[in-house]
């Protein structure tokens, strides 16, 4: 199973420059989105470092690894592990750059990445950039925000509607580059050719609620290009308070997966 990918990033209506970074590698069926933070454009540096490091690590590790694994199930499991390890490497690179260069002190970035295989997707994230799945009529956020507000929701002190307007909604509790060690949330989900996956920065999810996003994805008759453009347009119409970045992915049936292309036998 291969995938169709559409990615867009927009500065928005308020910010002077874009600190988000998105990337994909169709040979690995990999997509990555990072939302940087830090003064003097350091957030822009952090997000770019994260994406570059993850791409470099996975391009080398996966192609070597899967030539040496005999069983498909083992290969899929190792893919998830390598995705996590690549993100941990990115954390190390950003943290060391921040410690060594004064202009980069305090920089960091969120990250959300998805690695699609024949029957499932490996998902990893740190921070409040999100991954959603549209499956039939069900639109579901698969990632869980690492924020103070999410912790308050979990504790029963806020509901989701109150959280949208809480002044602390941008206070992340985890990000790459802030500490020497970071915990990466990883998961594996089954995929279907009818799915649409959305990775996005909070510049989109802050402007549009889940229902609005779902309506747009369904209204555009499953055209990823139309959906992506309309999501950016509507977020900007609602204020565009932050950079707006998204990646839309749809699995394609009846195609060889990247594992099949890399490993034969």
TrEMBL record:
InterPro entries: PP2C, PPM-type-like_dom_sf, PPM-type_phosphatase-like_dom
Pfam families documented for this protein: PP2C_2
PPM-type phosphatase domain sequence ranges: 5-251
Cleavable signal peptide: none
Name of protein: Protein phosphatase 2C-like protein
Lineage: Bacteria, Pseudomonadati, Pseudomonadota, Gammaproteobacteria, Thiotrichales
Highest taxon, organism lineage: Bacteria
GO molecular-function terms, A-Z: protein serine/threonine phosphatase activity
